[in-house]
Amino acid sequence: GRQLAEGRRATLASALELEGTVLREGRLTQFVANNLERRIRLSGAPRGDPPVGGGGSSIPAIDPGALQDVVALAGQVAAQVDELLRNVHCGLQALTALSVGCIQTYRDGVESLGEAADLSIRAMYALVARCEELDRAMQPVPALAKRIRDMKGTLERLEGLCK
C-alpha cells in the first residue's frame, strides 16, 4: 500500500515537473505553474471558444449586480470586523483592569505582611528587653529567699525554745 502511494506521488510529481516547478520540503510539495497568467485566461474562456493568443482578453464581463453584492457583503464584513474589534478591545480592557486589581491586591497584601512582620519583630525585641529587665530585677530574690528561710529556721528554733 505504501509503495503504491509513493509510486503515485512520484508519477504525479513527474507530471507536474513538465508543467512547472516542483519544490519538496519533507512531506510538503509546492508547485509553481509555468505561464500561470495564460492558464488563468484559458480557465476563464468558454469551452467552445478557441483559446485566444497572448494579446487578446478572454475574461468575461463582470456582472454589476454581482459586484454590488460583493460590495454590500464587504461592507457587512467590515462592520462585523469593527464590532468584533470593539468587543475584543472591551474584553482586553476588562482583563487589564482585573489584572491591575489583582496586582494591587497582591501588592497591598505584601505591604501589609511586611508591616505585620516588622511589628511582630519589634514586639518580640520589646518582650526580650522586658524579660531581661525582669531577670535583673529578680536577681536579689534567691538571696532574699535564703534570708527568709534562715529567718524561718530561726523562728522555728525560738518557738521550740518557748515551748
From TrEMBL:
GO BP term (any one): lysosome localization
Residue intervals of the BLOC-1-related complex subunit 6 C-terminal helix domain: 60-159
Signal sequence, start to end: none
A cellular component annotation (GO) from this entry: BORC complex
Protein name: BORC6 protein
